[in-house]
Fold this sequence. Notes:
The complex is a heterodimer. By secondary structure, chain A is mostly helical. Chain A has one domain (55-287): Orthogonal Bundle (MetI-like fold). Chain A is 74% helix and 1% strand. Chain A contains 13 helices and two strands. Chain A has helices at 2-36, 51-58, 60-91, 99-107, 114-124, 130-137, 151-178, 183-191, 196-207, 209-224, 228-234, 245-254, 260-287; strands at 38-39, 46-47. In chain A, a hairpin with a 6-residue loop joins strand 1 (38-39) and strand 2. Chain B is mainly alpha-helical. Chain B has a domain at 63-228: Orthogonal Bundle (MetI-like fold), CATH 1.10.3720.10. Chain B contains 15 helices and no strands. Chain B has helices at residues 2-32, 37-41, 51-61, 64-95, 99-109, 116-129, 136-140, 147-157, 162-170, 175-186, 188-204, 207-212, 221-228, 236-256, 258-267. Chain B is globular and about 70 Å long. Classes of the chains: A mainly alpha, B mainly alpha. Chains A and B meet through helix 1, helix 3, helix 4, helix 5 and helix 6 of A and helix 1, helix 4, helix 5, helix 6 and helix 10 of B.
Amino acid sequence: MKTKKRKIxxxxxxIPASIMxxxxxxxxMIQSFILSLKRGSGTNMIFTGFSNYKxxxxxxxxxxxxxxxxxxxxxxxxxMLVMAMFxxxxxxxxxxxxxxxxxxxxxxxxxxxLVSYSIIFRSLFSVDGFxxxxxxxxxxxxxxxxxxxxxxxxxxxxxLALLWRWTGYNxxxxxxxxxxxxxxxxxxxxxxGANAFQKFTKITIPMLRPTILLTAIMSxxxxxxxxxxxxxxxxxxxxxxxxxISHYIYNLSFAGNPNFGYASAISYVVFILVAILAFIQMKVxxxx
Amino acid sequence: MSKRKFVYFGKYVFLILVAIISIxxxxxxxVSGTNKSVDVIAGKILPGNYLMENxxxxxxxxVLSQAMWNSIRNAVVSMVLNVFVCSLAGYGFEKFHDxxxxxxxxxxxxxxxxxxxxxVIPLFRMFGKMGLLNTTVGCxxxxxxxxxxxFMFRQAAKSFPDEIIEAARIDGVGEWxxxxxxxxxxxxxxxxxxxxxxxxxxxxxxxxxxxxLQNENSKTMPILVSGLTARYTIDYGSMMLxxxxxxxxxxxxxxxxxxxxxxxxxxxxxx
Lengths: 288, 271
């Protein structure tokens, strides 16, 4: 009698949360797949098979946003994780004074919302923005650079903004992991004549493997879904050359004539990419 | 010895440089909010006395106070529901676990891989039919239950001793009583960390509110701030003031609850 009641209670605890995840994640995922096989708008949608998926191969903007997303992914994740690891190992030094200040300062950007920091960077790098004013006053450039109006400078501003916002965030994970490494391992290495570089590559990196895996998966997932920055720093411009996939999906469905079918097909590509990359990273992380 | 000193000197120079780069954009944001737009463009980086004028211009031309209220209300309601529903589930999945619940949990975790962009279109259509567009409920509902938060509480519940539960049951305390009177108070640091993460996510959320809240009066701060860049001539002073105002709650939480803040971010994903 009692155990039965307890059983019911157990289910009572877990069912509300579980049902909500099913309704707001899994059901839309299935609906999204069905939508991706349809064409038209509103209630007049008809099945067209895989034509939306075929259309992607012809779509220059889709290819552009896909490659942009990968450019951000490769540049940002690689530079950021190396920076975060490097900063964390600098700050893990017991003899370093003012550690708390550096940690605080480097983590501070995480308090800004994604829209806020995007607008800060957009303003700093605008034609009449602070960066141009300073560079002109220092006579480093003759006339203001249109950072956000040129393809590569616009992409670089987005990468710089991402690095600024997320390096400190990832550094915190590395710091937490480093504090768990037993310092006697390093002392033993010093006795064996290891230098700083060897200590870093032979001890620190292997010990940090789980954290590297975790931060890599998190930032890959985040970068593949990049939206706020593309929307607010460059608005995808110039001529869509800095737009991300999520931004394109948004534009296809909510800006101008909605094309839910095609947008859903593209969103499935994002889903598959996230799944494949997470799988690869977990395999690589496990094997070594 | 002097070589070591030299290395330390290099470290400090590097760290100070990184600290300046980290702080400067935020300093510039705050200072620009107190300056005239022309001064901001001219590169002024000292505080000015134009704060009130910027604030007045924001209040006159935007729904600033309404947006601030919407943001606070949505974030607080979302945080409370999110933490409550997910802590209940995390506790249940850990302390009442059987093979079915374990299986369900691992299925729920898959939802962390579902990109927002893939769910917003069906959700938008679903909420349109249910009449939930432009409502707080519509804005909050999809974020009430998250696999991430359930997982965080399930991991934390592992450290909650089964003996306490057994002893309470013998004393005749009901299951809800155990959850509310024992689990919740004992795990309060987990709750604090979870609340911060949850509030931060709700406060910053942009894509879904942008889609579901299309009415001027239901706008949240990120949408309002983002809209300021779409104007024909951008008033940098008041725009930066708006950005600063939307950042203040996070800054307060960060400085007051620093320890929990960092714990919330790292602790939530450990193991």
